[in-house]
Design a protein that fits this description.
Blueprint (H helix, E strand, L loop, with lengths): L4 H57 L5 H16 L19 E2 L4 H9 L3 H31 L6 H12 L2 H11 L7 E2 L2 E2 L7 H4 L7 H6 L6 H15 L6 E2 H4 L13 H5 L10
Antiparallel strand pairs: 1-4, 2-3
């Protein structure tokens, strides 16, 4: 049975019309989706500007002249900013207290003042656990340096360092990653609570793990992880104005009466840090 030419042409025409209508609907829906994504991005940018960037900048500029109060003012600003994210912690969790932590000069006076007021038995606890933490830092540094020096024997040391940095992307992130592979408890963690919680470093305030305690177990990433990362970048931008970062226990070694040997770790964490390398 043959289909008349007219009917064939009509079927083709109807098919083309249907296809055109379908494409039009698709384009409209795609356009609406693009508009929604653009509006969402604009709203997110405005939120970050109003509730994150501006408060942190105002706090950094208006901290006053007292070193300890400067730190506390900035800490309070970070805490206010963090209230815009859903809470992820619970009391006596301690899951995020097993990593490499560094602090900036602006933070140190408040930490030192708080540590001086701690009972002697708490200070003894800190010193007892500090050795393991420092050994872990040194192990990570030695591992990183060994990888750098073994990359190639045919290029200069500085070229190897540069090549390694490119390969790893962010050296600080690489070190934190490696440190966390063999978790070592922060010396300031006592019975799953922080001994310096009121003056804890900004890195601890804006870290929020990558998840809630439940998500830590599920290994899933929360929806607000991007904003948490943005807050971290903004806080570090202001903190860097006070000087380069130092490993936590290196920076607080005097107030804790620690005999610290760090294998140059501070210099690796921040190339501008002028800590002497071991001879």
């Amino acid at each position: 049975m043959t289909i008349p030419l007219f009917d064939l042409l009509m079927n083709i025409s109807l098919g083309l019309v249907g296809f055109a209508i379908l494409m039009s609907i698709t384009l409209v829906l795609t356009g609406r989706q693009d508009q929604k994504e653009a509006a969402d991005a604009k709203e997110a940018a405005e939120f970050e500007r109003k509730y994150i960037d501006q408060p942190l900048e105002q706090a950094a500029q208006g901290c006053g002249s007292n070193p300890e109060e400067k730190a506390r003012v900035f800490f309070r600003a970070v805490d206010r900013v963090m209230t815009h994210l859903p809470p992820v912690c619970r009391h006596k969790c301690g899951r995020c207290c097993y990593q490499a932590i560094d602090i900036y000069p602006l933070e140190r006076p408040a930490l030192e003042a708080h540590i001086r007021k701690l009972p002697d038995e708490r200070k003894a606890h800190i010193r007892q656990h500090a050795k393991v933490w420092i050994e872990q830092y040194n192990r990570v540094y030695d591992l990183w340096l060994g990888n750098v020096l073994n990359d190639s024997d045919s290029v200069s040391s500085s070229a190897r360092l540069g090549s390694r940095r490119e390969a790893e992307g962010n050296m600080h992130d690489w070190i934190i990653d490696e440190f966390s592979k063999t978790p070592v408890m922060c010396p300031f963690l006592y019975e799953r609570s922080c001994l310096i919680y009121p003056v804890r470093p900004v890195m601890c305030r804006d870290y929020v793990m990558n998840a809630s305690p439940v998500r830590c177990e599920e290994q899933t990433t929360p929806e607000h992880a991007y904003q948490a990362r943005h807050i971290s970048h903004q806080t570090q931008k202001h903190l860097k104005q006070s000087g380069p970062a130092e490993p936590l226990l290196y920076a607080l070694s005097d107030v804790l009466s620690l005999d610290v040997t760090m294998n140059g770790m501070g210099k690796i964490l921040n190339p501008d840090f002028k800590a002497p390398l071991d001879s």
